[in-house]
Amino acid sequence: MLDAEQWQQLLQGFLEEANDLLREAEDCLLVLERSPTDSEAINALFRSVHTLKGSAGIFSLEPLVALAHHLENRLMQVRDGECALDDALTSLMLQCMDELNVMVRSIDPHTATLAPHTPRQAELLAALEAFTSSAPHAAQGPAVWQLALRLDAELLRNGFDPCAFIRYLARLGDILAVDTLTDALPALEQMDPEQCYLGFDITLSTEASRETLEEVFSLADGFYHLTLTCQTAPDDAPATASLRPATQTLAPTPASDEPRVVHTASSLVKVAAHKLDELINLVGELVISTAGAHMQAMQTGDSECIERVQAVHQHVEQIRERALKLRMVEIGETFNRFHRVVRDVSLTLNKQIQLHLHGGDTELDKTLTDRIADPLIHLVRNAIDHGIESAEERLAVGKPAQGNLSLSAGHDSGMIVLEIQDDGRGLNTARIREKAIARGMLDADSLLPDSDIHMLIFEAGFSTAEQVSNLSGRGVGMDVVRSAIDELRGTIEIESEPGKGCIFRIRLPLTLAIIDGFLVGAGADRFVIPLDMVTECMEAPATINGPLNLRGKPLPCIDLTTHFALGVPTTSRRNIVVVSQARQQVGLIVDRLLGELQTVIKPLGQLFRHLNGISGSTILGSGQVALILDIASLFRDLQQRNDTKHRPSAAIPNLSGEQTCNGSAI
Amino acid sequence: MTAMQASFGSLAEAQCIQHLSFRVRQAGYALPIDLVREIIEYDEVTRVPMMPDYIHGVINLRGNVVPVLDLAARFGLSRTEPDKRTCIVITELTLEDASQRLGLVVDAVDAVHDIDTRQVLPPPPFGARIRADFIAGMAQQEQGFLIILNLLQVLSTQDLLDLAQVRAAD
Predict the structure, then answer these.
(1) Would you say domain B2-169 falls under CATH 2.40.50.180?
(2) Separate counts of helices (H) and strands (E) for chain A
(3) Domain A329-509: CATH class, spelled out
């Protein structure tokens, strides 16, 4: 028997499996909604629900089994073409999925018990039942089936009794004949009483479908081989084509598809997330200690030692990369949830929307996928609610009635780029401007470029929706979206074209744990700049007033020592690190450039959460703590400081001189 | 008063609670010992820009980055100039469901006292050396009163938030 711990593990496994299965089932259902004839999807859906029912049965979760069973029955009819999967049925099935989800969540993880039927479940069961009765029954009389059942020698040892199956068959119809095949039976003295030597040829008259009959044995999956032959099959039975001739000898079970599937599944290992985190933390420590060892080795100047340390360093580097890859998951799973979101939202708003997904195989850190899901959902809802017009409006401006929403993911220079694109009306720049002025966020006479005005929608308490719907328009949200993205060290930008649509582009780092950094010194302090933000370094001119001329473009510069009030610079020969993000560029004036390093990010904690311009800290090889600059928030901070001082007058590039003096000194 | 309730409430049965006492500018203060993780020497502290004076910065505590707060400066006195006796008391408390470590700069660490919870007096409404809301209670000792600190209030991030907003408005 299973002991308590094994039972617990089994249950834990079931709960995880159930969640996966339900998600899979929901995805399939949504695929079916778009292409109702997709037989692969219906089969996958059926399998999911069936497996769920089977697993739930082990734990005697009666209400769950009941609902899954009814759902399965309906699906069977859909699969057999006895019932069309229309919108109403899809909606009902989605509701059932939701209820199943609720049930799975309410399973007590310790006792594996589930509360008895709720009225909601009864309602759904009744609705499913109603569908059954109203569905057009395929008028067919009982068919006569020949079941050639060959049993595996291990069947009995695995606790299955072939009689039980035959008895169950009798409930589905009339058993006309049972022929027991005994030719494999050895002599009595050689017989192993625990082994199964029998086979059966059964003639059954029943109205049940081929699948129902197959289902009867599915519990003993892998321990039997069944050949079904329908003698008076209805003409439209689609499965008859694939019939195999019944074998009359007890051939050993041929390798079916099932074991192969099982095999692929077993090559995956499920690991608890916290174990991975521990590993990655340790790898982080290893990176730090290696950096320390490397520094020490350099100081001794012993070339042998340096070489060895370098070798260790390379290996550590490889381990780090592999370790980080362990946490990478495809974003496709997150994307697939949006079928449901889009479906529900567009139904509520009565809009027709086609969702397109691209780049679902892009991999990113599990934490990122988990934490980006909510902001994405928000943006998608917004796009549907505010962006895409109603069908009439669309037709009036000559667009197809169906709106398009696309979600895509991809890599771009070491970052993950997620795009939410719609072909709606685009952002209403004038309205945003009006609203911003009304709210005092903007001066009435200020001349901001459109792209800057668009960014105002991310300010707290900003909403331009005329009507507050239960989806969006309350002005909480876009600022939450931005802060969520900030927290992930990402950025968001908007590209909007009136009447054509709008793109929200989110850039995220590949991982949250370790980054490549560039170490600089300012005063006595050291800072790490994320390396992917650094575009170039150069020597600073002796005096700087106003933006520099960087190959014909103005480059605003800020002095880190003065910006952070760190005291006086320690050197007169200073350097500029040019950092860029999205389309902005700033030169950071620092005292010393100290080179690249692997940076393990250590959060600074609650106390520093309101700190602008610094996102975290890291421990250098020497054991010192260095702060990591948060370029995105630094940019915003600069913008704010600038806005409060005077209106931003765009720096005028001076093509002849080295420096321009009429720009705003930041 | 939450800190006091947290530290005393559950221990109503046990009458005595061990407290660590330390000195800040000649005055004696104490903290329940279960909030204290360890005491370390004042060593290299990395300063964090744009923080109030009483935040000295962060230290590397065996691979963890821990913020360091100067109690004297927090109480409105001058910032501590570290000397040989200056210590950092590493405390740990739960803030918003996450355990947070924090170092407190003190001038010297004294001793561990058993303080009878029934003998702890409420803070005087005025006349104490520090803000009344920083005080969880007063414990009478031979040499005078020990002030038991309300650590949550001392660490209140609300103050920091206010500061950040003032800064933003500048």
Answers:
(1) yes
(2) 18, 22
(3) alpha beta
